[in-house]
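Quick one from the shared queue. A colleague (R.T.) flagged NAD(+) diphosphatase as missing a structural entry in our internal table.

Convert sequence to structure tokens.
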Amino acid sequence: MADPTASPTSPEIAGSPAGRVFVFRGSELLVRDDLSLPGEEVRSHEWAVKVEWQAVGHHLGQACISAALARDAAPPPGYTFKRLREMFPLLGEEASAVAGRAFQIAEWARTHRYCGHCGTPTVRVSHEFCMRCPNCGLSAYPRISPAMMVLIRKGDSILLARNANFVAGRYSALAGFVEAGESLEATVHREVEEEVGLRVRDLKYFKSQSWPFPHSLMLAFTAEYDGGDIRVDGHEIVDAQWYGPGDRLPDIPPLDSVAGSLIRAHLPPGAIPYKR
């Protein structure tokens, strides 16, 4: 997804007319029945008066606001809730990025209403994304969890692995969160050894992507195979295979994800795409 041109703005914008209104129920996004995004009109509904609106910023000249509803909230007539991830292909690259930002801001505000140190209700800071405690001064910013992704290459072959949590038949590049005190490079080497028992070298940065499920920043790399035999950990990774020229590929992530673009940029010559 492209980076949105939205920028932090004063919380007062949340009380002004908005061109883009993002309402979430868990990881579901409120949309009209025709799957278009709601506008300012959605705030006229009865349930909206109790909603805590958050200023997200401006995008393409329009104010953006977001809110998180209770998990049992019902949509108003003419609207429905759809999983945010499923809406990405319909929203398009840039609107998906803005929606992801709005989701993270809404979740951050929902989970930081009270100070984690003294329990005092927090206050939104006007000039940045910050919830500050008026009693002890503790500041809370939107959480961002860096995670690496790596596609291992061995000659013309690539390694694809199946995570236990993937949808049936899905394979992808390896991925894992950065631990405290680690560099990205150290994370790549550790995760590769832990998940599939291999050694790698010649790491090359590919690109990054904000991934709001719930607050990841994915940083993708390629790496060259440097030894070892595949030995899956059996917990996170349940299978891993080399795919080379002419091989039939398994189901891989869609192109709108960094995993999908990473794999497609390094497909073996003559590899046969997966077909449902």
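Residues 113-142 form one domain.
Residues 1-13 have pLDDT under 50 and may be disordered.
Added to the table.
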